[in-house]
């Protein structure tokens, strides 16, 4: 039997944002999705009130949608931040305060993959010191994820849109995955392969897939240029999904693009790829 075709899930932090957060799971379900992902849903709030966590869990349950990807607290995202775990002081403190909150929410929703964004370089701060703090906090995140049976995801962004972010290549992201696995001894860190960011960085996407599929825990896609739906830019997603199949990747493919209009009207091109919503 050949590898299972990747299944699509929809990112509710960038799609269906025309709706309030608690209405988005039902909208995704109405569009044919049973699986969704989220950035940390409360930008700037590391520890939301229990009632807010409960309300989101109920919305996911009532819609019949499974959460398959979640971010640990990353500051104000969308916004100026690209994570806080490498930022001394309040940033790191907030990240640590969020670890068990996010892990417990993941456990209650059946989510088994949690992403941790490194954070931008800070002027005047020694890079080595910042990286040491990042590794320490990523090990903490790996332990929190492991406690609930989840993997820790580490993602490369792109330098054009995130010029102060230090993890902007697949090689560096995978290297960091290996550093965390060595330091934690858990082996549960994985690469989050975001094909849009890697394309923006000029990487050879088929080569990245061939080289790193074995350490990849999640895939995200958007077309380039424009970060729109598949088929609106120059990337050949039929071929790229084929490469993922051939490489043995059988996980989720998160739709993390900006729709040109209503989110519900943006999914028609997926049928042309021969894939179904998960």
From TrEMBL:
One of its GO terms (biological process) is glyoxylate metabolic process. It comes from the Bacteria. GO terms for molecular function: hydroxypyruvate isomerase activity. The active site is at 155 (proton donor/acceptor), 256 (proton donor/acceptor). Residues 26-265 form the Xylose isomerase-like TIM barrel domain. Keywords: Isomerase, Pyruvate. The keyword Ligase does not apply. It holds the Pfam family AP_endonuc_2. Belongs to the hyi family. This is Hydroxypyruvate isomerase. It comes from Streptomyces albireticuli.
């Amino acid at each position: 039997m050949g590898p299972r075709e990747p299944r699509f899930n929809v990112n509710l932090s960038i799609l269906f944002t025309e709706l309030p957060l608690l209405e988005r799971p039902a909208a995704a379900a109405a569009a044919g999705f049973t699986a969704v992902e989220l950035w940390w849903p409360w930008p700037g709030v590391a520890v939301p009130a229990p009632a807010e966590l409960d309300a989101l869990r109920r919305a996911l349950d009532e819609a019949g949608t499974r959460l398959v990807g979640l971010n640990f607290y990353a500051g104000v995202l969308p916004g100026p931040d690209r994570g806080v775990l490498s930022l001394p002081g309040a940033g790191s403190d907030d990240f640590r305060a969020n670890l068990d909150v996010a892990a417990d929410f993941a456990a209650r929703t059946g989510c088994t993959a949690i992403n941790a964004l490194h954070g931008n370089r800070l002027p005047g701060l020694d890079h080595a010191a910042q990286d040491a703090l990042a590794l320490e906090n990523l090990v903490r995140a790996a332990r929190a994820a492991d406690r609930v049976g989840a993997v820790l995801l580490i993602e490369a962004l792109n330098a054009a849109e995130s010029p102060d972010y230090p993890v902007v290549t697949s090689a560096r992201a995978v290297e960091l995955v290996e550093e965390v696995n060595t330091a934690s001894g858990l082996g549960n860190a994985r690469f989050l392969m975001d094909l849009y960011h890697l394309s923006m960085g000029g990487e050879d996407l088929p080569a990245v897939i061939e080289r790193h599929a074995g350490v990849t825990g999640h895939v995200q896609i958007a077309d380039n240029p424009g970060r729109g739906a598949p088929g609106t830019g120059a990337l050949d997603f039929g071929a790229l999904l084929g490469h993922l199949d051939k490489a043995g990747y059988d996980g989720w493919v998160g739709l993390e693009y900006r729709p040109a209009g209503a989110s519900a009207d943006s999914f028609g091109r997926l049928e042309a790829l021969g894939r179904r919503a998960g």
